[in-house]
Amino acid sequence: MTGRQQVGYWAAGLVVLLVLxxxxxxxxxxxxxxxxxxxxxxxxxxxxxxRGLSRSLSTSIVLSLFFLAVVLxxxxxxxxxxxxxxxxxxxxxxxxxxxxxxALPVAVEIAGRIGIDIGAGAGDAVKxxxxxxxxxxxxxxxxxxxxxxxxxxxxxxxxxxxxVAFYLLRDFDHMIATLDGWLPRQHAATVRRLLDEIDxxxxxxxxxxxxxxxxxxxxxxxxxxxxGLEFGLIIGLFSGLVSFVPFVGALVGLVLxxxxxxxxxxxxxxxxxxxxxxxxxxxxxxMEGYYLTPRLxxxxxxxxxxxxxxxxxxxxxxxxxxxVLIAVPAAAAIGVxxxxxxxxxxxxxxxxxxxxxxxxxxxxxKSGPDGGG
Length: 373
Fold this sequence. Notes:
globular, 13 helices
């Protein structure tokens, strides 16, 4: 079989996989979640197995501890978060109306002092925008409920995910060995190396970015609560968790916080508290950019923030919530494959200019195109 034929078979397999994912996207969530749980719990399971425990017993212990921790966290946090979410949703229209009635006149006065005429229609514009925004949010939530988080899907997620995780985790090493036996013998070593790189990039990004999001969520939640902001805990946690999309978490959190702060503190003239709320997000971004990301992610991951944003948006547009879950693994795989293909191109006749062309010296190679992904 020629190399072109092999590429054709691999491309056909990829197309079939994408089509199946698109067709079965509505039922894939518990299976994708179970696979993710099994993937990240494999290292501690391997350690227990190395201590002499059977694979089944090691899997049972690790999964039991994991889901016990999840249940305890849910029992502790869900009542608090639920009350804050319900309260915030109920008061959101009032915040928007208060912003229009109280903050807008101040903005008009400040703009008039510096020579900017906002116009008499600013209030109507804010009202129309607020109505559209609230309507969009409720439409989005209603679509998410009917399309991806319906009751049946929630039940299947809670019931099927642990079962899928158990069997995948128990048979993980056996499945890897089986898949390794299916690799084309001529390219097995190269495929293994690429898969190891993809695994390293994906695990490094998810562990590092997950830690960054957790730290930011705790920081924003505690800081906003201590600053006296209503619903500061839920806004802060949400801002931190959404920070896996670069810059989006801080921007959404800042908008929600300022909307709440202006309505809560502006009528009483507590301008300092409003400044403190804004400063919290500035400190959070400085902490993320200059300390958390360099220490927890660094340059070893090789996933550019713009590439991550594009992958998340593209995955969500193509496959919904399941696409968002698989976006980072797909981005890691495409990034590694892109760097590999670029390296192959830089050593090919197409780049070197013919069969008789000599490879350029190291100095010339360093000045050539740089890989990325």
